[in-house]
Amino acid sequence: EKGGFDSFMEKEIHDQPDAVGQTLLGRSDVDGNLILDELRIDETILRSVDKIVVLACGTSAYAGQVAKYAIEHWCRIPTEVELSHEFRYRDPIVNEKTLVVAISQSGETMDTLMAVRYAREQGAKVVAICNTNGSTIPRESDAVLYTHAGPEIAVASTKAFLAQITAAYLLGLYLAQLRGNKYRDEIADVLADLSTIPAKIQAVLDDADKIKQLGADMANAKSVLFLGRHVGFPVAMEGALKLKELAYIHAEGFAAGELKHGPIALIEEGQPVVVVMPSPSARDSLHAKVVSNVQEIRARGAVTIVIAEAGDTTVEAYSEHVFYVPETPTLLAPLLTTVPLQIFALALASAKGYDVDQPRNLAKSVTVE
Ligand code: F6R
């Protein structure tokens, strides 16, 4: 049942080309139009939405944070991402014009369920993005967009995360299509780019020996920091969460731009720092800015582990370790850059001899508030 792998987690990491592929399947036509029949919310309501609130916990919330960059860009609808358990305790502004997107792999997370109930009481429409057929959150939502990642057994979420990003992107593209804004023309291109993602994930998996080895070599690390910018920021936080959960060491994700506002004080000789490097083609010279962050932390003794885009050889001069992922548009990069971070955490935790499928103190479904 583990498909020849040592753990469910490893199997599920390798299921990811399929998880993304299945989630895309049958949801667009050959002309690049989205077909989301399951989105049974009146189109006039979807057209009048003036705010999107994404509610989720943990890894699913990081998927929401990634999606925010894409949804705001394509739809020009203000999008907030909030942890479900914070949401209803602060008198949030939600009404009939709010579209809530509840992201949950299990569909049973009590915090998210309670937030969904609260949002609906305020008149909001709720779309669930969920991996578990017929679970509670989809049943209590107005509509559901299922991720088709297949059952996720390992406690730490991997393939569901990539499938959630994929589904949230489809939702964003669908809203852009419906609302006919100026980004309408991009939809077919983005769909074409998305269709190349499964093969690119496979390429990352096929090339994973080096990052596996590095994870194993770092089994004695006491703390690992993760830096990212733009969509790479939530990816950095997800990479850190995987390491906390699986390897029980301190790990923290930062926005690279925030470094000089505090976290750089943490850097001392030998501190491992994983950097999710923006593509050299990213807007607003983000790449150059992160390269300069890497130089700053290296000058203070950090050991840098850089996830970069293929062809970006400039980073080699500034990094102890570089891992390349295939070239892809910036908004889709998280579907690739996350994968080496999952493999790194898995390898490090395995080298420590920990049970990666059942980390201590954690449950797969958190059904209490
Ligand atoms: C992390 C992890 C958790 C879940 C969170 C939400 O690897 O698995 O952070 O992502 O508990 O769970 P769902 O998505 O089932 O609502």
Automatic annotation (TrEMBL):
Q: Which catalysed reactions does the entry list for this protein?
A: D-fructose 6-phosphate + L-glutamine = D-glucosamine 6-phosphate + L-glutamate
For whether the record's keyword set contains Ligase, the answer is no
Subcellular location per UniProt equals: Cytoplasm
Q: Report keywords, A-Z.
A: Aminotransferase, Cytoplasm, Glutamine amidotransferase, Repeat, Transferase
Enzyme Commission number(s) of this protein: 2.6.1.16
Q: What class of enzyme is it?
A: transferase
Q: Does the keyword Lyase apply?
A: no
Which biological process terms from the Gene Ontology are attached to this UniProt entry? amino sugar biosynthetic process; carbohydrate metabolic process; fructose 6-phosphate metabolic process; protein N-linked glycosylation; UDP-N-acetylglucosamine metabolic process
In this chain the SIS domain maps to 41-181, 214-359
Task: One GO cellular component term, please give it.
Answer: cytosol
Q: Which residues form the active site?
A: K364 (for fru-6p isomerization activity)
Q: Which GO terms describe its molecular function?
A: carbohydrate derivative binding; glutamine-fructose-6-phosphate transaminase (isomerizing) activity
Q: Which domain of life is it from?
A: Bacteria
What is this protein's function per UniProt? Catalyzes the first step in hexosamine metabolism, converting fructose-6P into glucosamine-6P using glutamine as a nitrogen source.
On assembly, the entry states:
Homodimer.
According to UniProt, the name of this protein is Glutamine--fructose-6-phosphate aminotransferase [isomerizing]
Origin species: Arthrobacter pityocampae
* Encoding gene (name): glmS
First and last residue shown, out of the full length, are: 278 to 646 of 646
